[in-house]
């Protein structure tokens, strides 16, 4: 049975599993079948573990106890793990998309071609066709394994997966109700042919959970043909209340050639990742190539900063400067580099603070889960007495122990109740 109180030993996680995020292609998100919440989480963790060698290795392995804990199973409950792996091998993924030449491509594959447990190790594989689709970076969503642990329903997680890849465009676009039922795994039910039932039992609860538990806010809109609802779409924006739980894909970014080239030029780790995040790897590589083609540059790091900020190109390059002009530019760029380094250090400090706070709030959630209902009610009432403003109290009523506005007070409150839990 699932063990929600199980804490993951992160020292046991290696490689891709330490990243917390996984690129998930449209073909993988649009699953034909009905997965439970834990089975959907299991699919994401397996993909995360395999992603770096998805197209180069024929099979992949992961410690079975680590896998069970990451998904939320009791680490000794191998019967449930076996049943879930069997379900993934029997579940179909279907894709219908354009290839690079603009030709329509349809395909179908089992989510896993096989899986086995032996000597405490889970070994599994994907079909070559599906592996290629899963690894395609052109159309993907970043599924955050840290965020997915907040979900308590499969429909909520399914909606999150299908909406998150559209966060930059702000809308999913229109889906027919037939497609939407398929995405949510209820296409075979006569009960959900009625939009009234679909809205009450699937759409409203899933939207509420996404908005409460994830880093995005979604809002459904419907379109009718006559009197009947025919299509649905979701407007999407970022959820500022969940910003502290964001964990970036630092390890994945550090494997990029452009990141390594920046580090070779003396750019700091934080600044390199910041440039790649803000401008994209192709843009940054273009500026690296531009600076490398210039002769007589004394401060290549400073010139690279100026090239990235000013979008220097070979066509727009200015005439060669005099030594005096170059010295003045170098002095300006050096001062700017110092300023940006200070900003990067401050940014890093804030990021560390957010990560520490997120870890402490994870501990709080674990402590809360161990209390009985009477204790939980008493804890909430006691904490409410320490809040001075109506805004703080209302925010706590809405978000409970995940109230970002009261995070510092929440952590302090539980540190007094359970100091040993925060000892590390």
TrEMBL record:
GO biological process: what's one of them?
Answer: DNA replication initiation
Q: Per UniProt, what is one GO molecular function of this protein?
A: DNA-directed DNA polymerase activity
Residue span(s) of domain Initiator Rep protein WH1: 21-163
Fetch the InterPro entries from UniProt. Answer: Initiator_Rep_WH1 (IPR000525), WH-like_DNA-bd_sf (IPR036388), WH_DNA-bd_sf (IPR036390)
The organism's superkingdom is given as: Bacteria
A Pfam family the protein falls into:
Rep3_C
Similarity remark: Belongs to the initiator RepB protein family.
Name recorded for this polypeptide: Protein involved in initiation of plasmid replication
> What species is this protein from?
Tritonibacter multivorans
